[in-house]
């Protein structure tokens, strides 16, 4: 470790990457602070480095709790010990007869599996293939205790790095600059206006006693478009709702969009999108889980514009729907609700999580009421759809 402390640049960069992969918010500034601490005075023990680096790397309670274990795991992997994962579930007690029956059943099952494996091994030997049967079976996630399955199972669709979230925010900023502003009936004072404001002109010129006039101009007030995002988090959208919610979070942070999720009824999650903490990712994952089938898209849209007076739908409103189009309501009900929004001047865009447009009866009946149908099955298709979106 002494050599590492004397020449720490490459190791510190690797340590910063290790912390980022573990969920820490580590950037170039934090890595420069790590090096600055090492160069400030000579350090001889890992304990001193750990105490001095902790306030630089830890930004939350979760970071402080995981800091010591991650630090020792990287710098002294030979000192780390194995841990036991407990599920917390309780089991009823068993008597002696039940234990004997379970042991017999386990022995018989073990012998059957051994015979099966021996037969399959002979078949593989005859066929000349050395493929393992365990690779053909999908891996199961363990709930606790000892297991041969890796606890860090694949969570590629749920784990998002800060670079991915920054890309979404940059995309949202570009869309925000392209969004047009709507002219209203109200006027506002402007030196670039083309209409003379007679009242303000007389008020400004009163101090001159009529010797001359000070012209004041006005123009129509322009207000930005109000964006509302409606995300489907039903069972059929469980694998795709994470991308939709993180896109909604980016647009809320950039332009203040309001975010709703629905299954049987709409629920506003704008406050959840506003907080920027390490727990937001797990909370978004929790929102997308636990829902059952039976999506009510039409009823959710009706509840959104009928029972929520704080949500205004007019010609300044843009509604983005993230859904696969499967609705358990009558097929013509969704078209009626979208037609009601179109009559109010709302422009509706539909993002679907598949490579082809939704083929459900409700989606086909409502195709004329939707301005654009856009694919959003991954980040690349979502980016292409947003860049090609007509405003």
Question: What does the model show?
Answer:
This protein has 391 residues and is α/β, with parallel strands linked by helices. It is built from 15 helices and nine strands. The protein has helices at residues 2-6, 9-21, 28-40, 46-57, 61-75, 96-127, 162-178, 198-205, 241-255, 270-274, 280-287, 297-306, 331-343, 361-365, 379-387; strands at residues 181-189, 195-196, 217-224, 226-232, 258-262, 266-268, 317-322, 347-352, 372-375. It has a six-stranded mixed β-sheet, with helices on both faces. A three-stranded antiparallel β-sheet has the order 1-3-2. The chain is flat, with a radius of gyration of 30 Å. The two termini are 59 Å apart. Residues 1-5 and 123-158 have low confidence and may be disordered.
- Computed over alpha carbons, the radius of gyration is 30 Å
Percent helix range: 40-55%
Count the DSSP helices.
Answer: 15
Q: Strand count, sense and closure of the main sheet?
A: 6 strands, mixed
Under CATH, the topology of the largest domain can be stated as Rossmann fold
What is the C-level CATH assignment of the largest domain?
Answer: Alpha Beta
Beta fraction: 5-15%
The secondary structure category is alpha/beta
Which overall shape is indicated by the principal axes computed on the Cα atoms? Answer: flat
The string of secondary-structure elements, in order, is HHHHHHHEEHEEHEEHHHEHEHEH
Q: Termini, distance in Å?
A: 59 Å
Total number of domains: 3
CATH superfamily of the largest domain: von Willebrand factor, type A domain
Strand order, largest beta sheet: 6-5-4-7-8-9
Which regions have little confidence, pLDDT < 50, spanning 5+ residues? 1-5, 123-158
According to DSSP, the number of beta strands is 9
CATH architectural name of the largest domain? 3-Layer(aba) Sandwich
- Average pLDDT value? 76
């Amino acid at each position: 470790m002494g050599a590492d402390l004397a020449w720490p640049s490459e190791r510190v960069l690797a340590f910063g990457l290790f912390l980022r992969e573990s969920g820490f918010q580590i950037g170039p500034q934090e890595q420069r602070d790590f090096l600055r601490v090492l160069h400030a005075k000579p350090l001889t023990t890992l304990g001193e480095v750990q105490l001095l680096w902790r306030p630089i790397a830890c930004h939350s309670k979760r970071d402080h709790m995981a800091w010591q274990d991650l630090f020792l795991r990287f710098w002294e992997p030979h000192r780390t010990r194995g841990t036991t994962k407990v599920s917390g579930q309780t089991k009823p007690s068993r008597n002696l007869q039940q234990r004997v029956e379970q042991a017999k059943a386990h022995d018989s099952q073990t012998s059957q599996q051994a015979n099966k494996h021996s037969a399959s091994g002979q078949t593989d030997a005859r066929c000349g293939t050395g493929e393992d049967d365990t690779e053909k079976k999908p891996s199961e996630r363990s709930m606790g205790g000892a297991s041969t399955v890796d606890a860090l199972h694949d969570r590629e669709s749920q784990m998002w790095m800060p670079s991915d979230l920054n890309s979404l925010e940059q995309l949202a900023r570009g869309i925000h600059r392209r969004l047009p502003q709507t002219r209203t009936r109200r006027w506002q004072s402007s030196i670039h206006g083309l209409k003379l404001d007679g009242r303000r002109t007389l008020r400004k010129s009163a101090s001159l006693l009529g010797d001359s006039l000070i012209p004041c101009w006005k123009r129509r007030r322009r207000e930005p478009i109000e964006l509302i995002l409606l995300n489907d988090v039903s069972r059929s959208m469980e694998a795709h709702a994470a991308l939709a919610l993180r896109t909604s979070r980016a647009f809320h942070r950039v332009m203040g969009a309001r975010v709703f999720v629905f299954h049987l009824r709409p629920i506003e999650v704008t406050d959840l999108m506003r907080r920027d903490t390490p727990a937001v990712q797990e909370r978004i994952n929790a929102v997308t889980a636990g829902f059952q089938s039976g999506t009510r898209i039409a009823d959710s849209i009706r509840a959104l514009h009928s029972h929520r007076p704080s949500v205004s739908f007019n010609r300044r409103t843009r509604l983005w729907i993230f859904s696969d189009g499967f609705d358990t309501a009558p097929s013509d009900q969704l078209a009626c609700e979208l037609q009601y929004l179109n009559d109010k001047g709302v422009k509706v865009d539909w993002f679907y999580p598949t490579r082809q447009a939704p083929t459900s009866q409700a989606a086909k009946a409502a195709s004329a009421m939707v301005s654009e149908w856009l694919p959003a099955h991954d980040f690349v298709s979502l980016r292409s759809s947003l860049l090609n979106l007509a405003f």
